[in-house]
Amino acid sequence: LQRNNHGNSLGASSITYQLENEGDGMIFSVNARNGDIRLNKHLDREVRAHYEFRVFAIDDTSKSVKISQNSPYLVNKWQHQYTATATIIITVLDVNDNPPIFETPLNGQEFHIEPGSSMTTAGTTLFTAKAHDPDIGDNSLVRYSLDNNGYGLVEIDSTTGVCYFRETVQHSLLTKLIASNQYPIHGRTTNHLIDTNLISSDNLITNRAHELHSFSLSLTIIARDLGKPYSLNNSRTVKLVWTTEL
Questions:
Q1: How far apart, in Å, are the Cα atoms of 228 and each of 94, 140, 224, 225, 232?
Q2: Which Pfam families match (predicted)?
């Protein structure tokens, strides 16, 4: 910010600038000679968006001058000092500098799915993802998606964050998921945890499937804002846990 003022006082004069030495005036500084106002620290709109302070322009005359050169007497007189005041209002504009912040679900949260429960039905809500972005405008708008397209099994509403199965999960579909070797599935038998690679093997399906009493599918939810020129994102990983024997 810059203010140009001209002193028209009698004799030599100059303008100096000062900021009030309190409140918001402490956050800024002014060049005493040209009136340029600068920041003393970084401003963050999410912390505070508006600042208000006063700046003073002072007609700084400290010399004695002649009243008249034609006067037979040399008369000296100190000029008066005049001050002008202006109120400065600073509005901090938003930039897309904050990624979405998840509220739900919790990272690593498990959603247990019992055999024959309504959660296995197509379209039934498994959970609802919710994230907020402290920016404003388009920078604050959040859209949801699933990593790897939900493996073709799970869908999420991009606006509401509601997550659900694309199709009804039946025994045959679970067997297909395990055998496909395409999903980050972890299984547990009555004795120990089975490695992801092992659970996807034909050996497990043919010889050890009867031992399996639960397995989980890791699912990553992505929350992305609509900021320009670039968007920011955040993610949460949860587990869908089936407690059933195949």
A1: 11, 11, 12, 9, 9
A2: Cadherin (PF00028)
Q: Is the pLDDT of residue 178 over 70?
A: no
Architecture of domain 101-242: Sandwich (2.60)
3-state secondary structure of 170: coil
Q: Fold match between 14-91 and 101-242?
A: yes
d(CA 28, CA 51): 10
Query: Which amino acid, 16?
Result: T
Nearest Cα to 10, choosing from 71, 83, 85, 64? 64
What are the phi and psi torsion angles at 133 (to 5°)?
A: -125, 125
What stretches of 61-124 adopt beta strand conformation (E)?
64-66, 76-78, 82-91, 101-104, 110-113
Cα separations in angstroms, 217 against 52, 61, 145, 157, 220: 54, 80, 17, 19, 10
Q: Which fold has domain 14-91?
A: Immunoglobulin-like (2.60.40)
What is the reported pLDDT for 14? 86
